[in-house]
Amino acid sequence: MTSVLKFFQGRFGRVALLDSDHSLVTHAHPQCHLLIKARGEDTAFQVGDRLHPLTRETAVLINAWEPHAKIHRAAQRSTVLALYIEPDWLAAMDRRLSAAGLSGFFPRACVPIPGHVRALADRVTDEMFDADAGRRCKWESVLFELMMSVLYTYSAWRDRAEIHHASLRRPSDPRIGRAIRFMQDNLGGEFSFDEVARQSCLSRPHFFHLFKQCTAVSPAVFFNTLRMESAFTQLSTARITINDVAGRLGFSEPHHFTRFFRQNLGIPPSEYRKTVELFH
């Protein structure tokens, strides 16, 4: 069972300290995703079709919208520091990081952790347990230093023009744009990919093929990501019950929503709501 030790959310994105002993399904995030082992056993994440180790000496870096999954091994328990960094926030902080939301921003998924980054990650982990209102400025400063150290060391920010050009070479189709808008507008309704394909004026097989060509993820992973992002917002800011959140996201039964949330994050929505702290 996974438990969340700390979870912070703000304009920068999200940062979590998760104690986990089971797998996560293939999923994606619209944020840059940094994974650093804090404590416990080594573990591994599958990014694309390759398995990458997460150890004291290696970090896993995942591009925005890049499919990945946590692979659990028996009798293994790990505490993972997980950062989900908003690309727009990064671009506002430093224009050199304007390609942070594009594929190719992290050229490598598994990278060695230099000593200074390891020390910063350990400080962030320690500070998370003491990040009360009086110490948040200090914690935010260390977190920002960790983020930027990793990004400047391992992202392709120097090649941002090429990353932007490469993104323009990805196929673009207005029918897929219509499909995405339809998904965004129908998070809480009865949903079927047959209907999305019809809205796009495509056959189902052609829709699935073209969607992945244009976005690099399957329609199911994309739609589930939209639902998870909406769930994060509603659970942390809206004064409604978890049952109501489940209904708003199209789940016929609350336990279906709980299973979905746990499969994607490792914890139930009730634990996320209880633990999350907002930074303004």
Key terms:
280 residues, alpha+beta, Jelly Rolls, Arc Repressor Mutant, subunit A, 2 domains, 7-stranded mixed β-sheet, 4-stranded antiparallel β-sheet, globular
Mean pLDDT, nearest integer?
89
N→C terminal distance: 31 Å
Quickly give the structural class. Answer: alpha+beta
SSE order? EEEEEEEEEHEHHHHHHHHHHE
Portion in helices: 40-55%
Outline type: globular
**CATH class descriptor name of the largest domain:** Mainly Beta
In CATH, the homologous superfamily of the largest domain goes by the name Jelly Rolls
Query: Which architecture of the largest domain would the CATH scheme give at its second level?
Result: Sandwich
Question: What kind of sheet is the major sheet?
Answer: 7 strands, mixed
Describe this entry's structure for a reader:
The chain has 280 residues and is an alpha+beta fold. The chain has 2 domains: 3-166, Jelly Rolls, CATH 2.60.120.10; 173-278, Orthogonal Bundle (Arc Repressor Mutant, subunit A). It is 45% helix and 22% strand. The chain has 11 helices and 11 strands. The chain has helices at residues 87-93, 115-128, 136-154, 160-169, 174-185, 193-199, 204-215, 219-237, 242-248, 254-265, 269-275, and strands at residues 3-10, 13-20, 24-27, 32-40, 43-47, 50-54, 58-62, 68-71, 78-85, 110-112, 276-278. It has a 7-stranded mixed beta sheet with strand order 10-7-4-9-2-1-11. Strands 3-8-5-6 form a 4-stranded antiparallel beta sheet. A hairpin with a 2-residue loop joins strand 1 and strand 2 (13-20). Helix 2 (115-128) runs antiparallel to helix 3. It starts with a strand and ends with a strand.
